[in-house]
Amino acid sequence: MQRTFDDFATWATTDESSEEALTRQVSRFVELLQAQPGGPRGYRLHRIILTNFWLYGRQEFEIPHGRLFLAGENASG
């Protein structure tokens, strides 16, 4: 069965808080994205941490799909 983003939005149950439902939905969406093929075998980017870079004192980015595109203020990448 193919899952879509809309499927994740309807999976929340009424007996849990909206924050718990959102956390669960995001976790399932991340699992779906990580299961998608792409990138070299054996290596998939999951997280980066920028420290003292431009406007970031310390910023952590989760990368669920294994691909990252950074664009500067001038959109040069």
State the share of residues found in helices, binned by percent. 25-40%
Beta fraction of the residues? 15-25%
- Mean pLDDT figure: 70
Largest sheet: 2 strands, antiparallel
Give me the count of strands.
2
Overall tally of domains: 2
From the alpha carbons, calculate the radius of gyration and give it in angstroms: 16 Å
In terms of structural class, how would the helical and strand content be classed? alpha+beta
The shape, in one word, is extended
What does this structure look like?
This protein has two domains: 1-35, no CATH class; 40-77, no CATH class. The chain contains two helices and two strands, in the order ααββ. By secondary structure, the chain is an alpha+beta fold. The relative contact order is 0.14. It has a two-stranded antiparallel ribbon. β1 (47-53) and β2 (56-62) form a beta hairpin. The termini are far apart. 30% of the residues lie in helices and 18% in strands. The chain has helices at residues 5-10, 18-34, and strands spanning 47-53, 56-62.
